[in-house]
Amino acid sequence: MKRASRALLCILPGLLTALSSPRLMAKSPDFAIGMDHRARFVAWDNTIDLNADQADPFTFTRHRTRLSLRWNPSKRWEIFTRLTNEFRIYMKPEDQDFTIHELVFDNLYIRWKSAFGINSTLTVGRQDIMLGEGFVVMDGHPMDGSRTIYFNAARWDIQILKNRSLSLFYTYQPVTDDQLPIINDQNQPLIEQPEEAIGVYCQGKQGKTAFDWYVIRKLIKATNDLPVASSVNTAGARFDASITNHLFATMEGAFQFGTFGDFKRSAFGGQGHLDYQIRGTLKTVTLGTIYLSGDDPDSERMEAWDPVFSRWPKWSDSYIYTLIPETGGKVAFWSNLTSLYGSIRIGVMKPLDLLLTLHRLGAPQSNYGGSGNVRGNLIILKALFRLNKNLNGHILWERFCPGSYYPAEADDYNWFRTELMLIL
Q1: Which residues face 217 on adjacent strands?
Q2: Alpha-carbon distance 186 to 227, whole Å?
Q3: How many CB atoms lie within 10 A of CB 417?
Q4: Domain count, the chain
Q5: Quick one: pLDDT at residue 61?
Q6: Alpha carbon distance 118, 159 (integer Å)
Q7: Which of 126, 270, 302, 349 has the fewest Cβ atoms within 10 angstroms?
Q8: Residues 301-334: pLDDT tens digits?
Q9: Rg (CA), the chain
Q10: Is 285 exposed, middle or buried (0-12, 13-18, 19+ CB in 10 A)?
Q11: CB distance 275 to 284 below 8 Å
């Protein structure tokens, strides 16, 4: 079986390359084929437990291939599908068996433009949805990593005025994919509990200022393993403002109410940043802050911020794993966190940029076994390069030094990744 899987892996890139030949890839008004392949090398140790004495290093490669087909039978209709496979090859731990893993429908939707005879677009089916910067809506199921980020959804975008639009959406996310066929099904977990949501997202612009507001209701259903059902109602707003030709401000905040089992829910989350854009070698200087409320164990309410559909590496690719032990085993469950951070982006040469970010992390609630509220210092250094329009990548290094929020014996960690992305 392993030999057959490896043989298939050798054949698959050739087939995809053939399908992606210039003749087939030539886009016509009604039909297009797309393909991309992402290769990553990842290495880290004690990122989850912050314990250097525990021998638990991870070193592996990730290989994601996507093939898409788009058909426009008319100007008003679009049908889109994308098939995705991602497999890993582990060097450490050495007892990880190789598998080609699954071939899944990453996207499969029908889009109707000028829906119902008005200036609107209706999209029904499996689709990617990102609202704003992804503070509340970005990834429908975090447990398969960045393999896919889709939502099983219906979305209706309505253009109300020239600078005003309204989006209505409904989503349903099962624990595993039981909605569409899977080749070589591995029963991949997608989310810990089934989630269902309905939302309204309004966007507007006045001059150089953009203003959004939203209301999202998410229901989290009970399972045998996790018998606590809950509801999360999130009401928030976001604005982007051009202060000068070089200085830009972004702020977003949201309140949450609802239930967590038998408890009432009351939480707040927000972020903001100033970006100063400069022409030349020093491209951008950013100063920002993050606040996500934590739960007070002595109260009769659940005050911890729920990330809604934003469990993705928005602020760090490594720290999403450090959060696992304090969030009931949930990856990227951004909650009980504060940050004051700064970053600079430097253009080293035409195809290469360097991005340096420093976070001073804290916690509104100090309930993790340490003596204080300082999570620690997080350093992120990322080199981004684009060799041509079809080939880009990055080299990423992150280092975290724990503070008083953690036990005194907590150790530092280093986290490393390289990526190469081919787009045809």
Answers
A1: 198, 233
A2: 24
A3: 18
A4: 1
A5: 98
A6: 9
A7: 349
A8: 999 999 999 999 999 999 999 999 999 999 999 9
A9: 22
A10: middle
A11: yes
Domain holding 79, by residue range, is 2-423
The rounded distance, in Å, linking the Cα atoms of 420 and 386 is 10
Other beta carbons within 10 angstroms of residue 83's beta carbon come to 16
Q: How many Å is the maximal CA-CA distance in the chain?
A: 66
| Beta bridge mates, 157 | 121, 167
Residue 6 vs residues 95, 104, 267, 343: alpha-carbon distances, Å: 18, 19, 49, 42
Query: Which tokens sit at 150?
Result: 């889709």
Spatial distance between the Cα atoms of 28 and 26, rounded to a whole number of angstroms: 6
Give the integer Cα–Cα distance in Å for 34 and 66: 8
pLDDT tens figures, 244-290: 999 999 999 999 999 999 999 999 999 999 999 998 889 999 999 99
Burial of 389 per CB tally in 10 Å (0-12, 13-18, 19+): exposed
Q: What single letter denotes the amino acid at residue 19?
A: L
Please state whether beta strands 337-349 and 195-206 pair in parallel, antiparallel, or not at all (unpaired).
Answer: unpaired
Q: Say what the pLDDT of residue 55 is.
A: 82
Cα(294)–Cα(288) distance, integer angstroms: 20
CATH number at residue 197: 2.40.160.100
pTM: 0.91
Q: Which amino acid is at 223?
A: T
> How does strand 301-302 pair with strand 263-277?
parallel
* The two three-digit tokens of residue 5, written as one number: 């899987």
φ, ψ for residue 206, nearest 5 deg:
-135, 110
